[in-house]
Design brief:
Keywords: Membrane, Protein transport, Translocation, Transmembrane, Transmembrane helix, Transport. Pfam families: TatA_B_E. InterPro entries: TatA/B/E. It is found in: Membrane. The protein is mainly α. It has a domain at 6-79. Helices cover 54% and strands 0% of the residues. It is elongated, with a radius of gyration of 34 Å. The chain starts with 5 loop residues before the first helix and ends in a 34-residue tail after the last helix.
């Protein structure tokens, strides 16, 4: 729950009760109730709209197959390593090399003044 443990939640509730006070507590509790109801209504409406948009195809989807929690990275790597390939992957040909030009003894290397 948002990275808050039970003790921290109790401290936050007590702090909220102390700051709000007993006079305004019913008013804020009613606002919280309305917020939760509107969020639930919004989520239900979005679900119904999705069902209407996708139509009968939505019932045919196997949601368990699409659940990412079923995939164990160790199993995926193990299957990939143990998978038999019919033919080895083709290696690309190395690019052709430029011919090496040797300088004569005492000859200076070409120098580009604009390069520096």
């Amino acid at each position: 729950m948002l990275g808050i443990n039970g003790g921290e939640a109790i401290i936050l509730v007590l702090l909220a009760l102390f700051l709000i006070g007993p006079e305004r507590l019913p008013e804020y509790a009613e606002k919280l109730r309305q917020l939760v109801r509107s969020a639930k209504r919004y989520a239900t409406g979005a679900t119904e709209e999705l069902r209407e948009t996708l139509g009968p195809e939505l019932a045919d989807v196997d949601w368990r197959k699409l659940d990412p929690r079923q995939y164990d990275p160790r199993t995926i790597v193990r299957q990939a390593l143990l998978e038999d390939d019919d033919e080895p992957p083709a290696r690309p040909a190395p690019p052709p090399r430029a011919p090496v030009v040797r300088l004569a003894p005492g000859e200076r290397a070409p120098f580009d003044t604009e390069a520096t």
